[in-house]
Amino acid sequence: MPLATRRAALALPLLALPLVARAQGGSSSWRPSQAIRIVVPAAPGGTADISARLLAPFLQAHYGQNCVVENRSGAGGVIGTQEVVRAAPDGHTLLLGNIGPQAIGLSLYRSLPYRREDLTPVCGTVRGPNVLVVHPSVPATTLPELVAHLKKNPGRLSFGSPGVGQSPHLTGVWFCQATGTEAVHVPFRGAGPAALELVAGNIQFMWDNLTSGISQIRAGRVRALAVSSADRNHQLPDLPAARETLPELAKFDVNTWFGIFVPAATPRPVVDSINAAMMQWHGTEEVKARWREMGGVALAGTPEDYAAFVNAEIEKWGEVIRKEGLQLEIG
């Protein structure tokens, strides 16, 4: 499905693509002259890291240059992002960015050491929904029933998340904003601890990443009501998208997502070359199988497609965060 949206096209200021004409070299003219680094602004083991380590060997074979993954976690992705922003704009340092530091963080944090214009989007890797799960004791088997239960008990139910400002937290915030409901947010240090508290019945519901929450659903420990994406997910095809269930959720569309960025001054032939390589990578059976296994959807397309997608995400989460009045210091 196309990634560009009218709203993204109108959003200002936009993430810009380099103004270097394709005629100056084209997508196949640039090749790296030294090793490529893929900086992951997160710890090993998560989806960002998985994406980078799936991509690195392909780029290494494609270009005939070493390609290494470096994890630079800390400060919600700010440390790794800042390292790439400061790197030479020559295609040898890539950022495996994500929804946190490249969209949510731009509105969430009071003083970021970089701007949205400091990075150029190249190509996405994968996106995937969050899933709304409730403890079996909650008297709701559908999302509308949960909303009705929340409205009868304002402020009496709690929802968990892996931390303030994380995608599952803000998915819950937007859900409550859109449905006019109140619930108490309980942050934990990671999705695992939050899921354990949900299974124990100490919180009543949460929006969990599908990739991490699907095992609890299949084991029957929690009840799934909906996915956050605009469309259903192939891993749970009978589970509706949230926007299918209530008119007030018609615009509800949340995905965690990941993709490659480069420093803003990177010439267009470099961007085109890396994008072309990544589009070949997306077409491999290994990558397709991995995304299916994770419940993910390929985030493939042109640099313009990816830039429009990222801009729409920045605007969407900025509106949710401003409405909530949520601001954090970088820590």
Model description:
The chain is α/β, with parallel strands linked by helices and 331 residues long. The protein has 2 domains: 6-127 and 255-324, Bordetella uptake gene, domain 1 (D-Maltodextrin-Binding Protein, domain 2, 3-Layer(aba) Sandwich); 129-249, Periplasmic binding protein-like II (D-Maltodextrin-Binding Protein, domain 2, 3-Layer(aba) Sandwich), CATH 3.40.190. The chain has 12 helices and 10 strands. The chain has helices spanning 6-10, 47-63, 78-85, 99-108, 143-152, 167-179, 191-199, 210-218, 242-245, 268-282, 285-294, 303-324, and strands spanning 36-40, 67-71, 93-98, 119-134, 158-161, 184-187, 205-209, 223-227, 255-263, 297-298. Strands 1, 2, 3, 4, 5, 6, 7, 8, 9 and 10 form a 10-stranded mixed beta sheet that branches. α4 (99-108) packs parallel to α12. It is globular and about 65 Å long. The two termini are 37 Å apart. Belongs to the UPF0065 (bug) family.
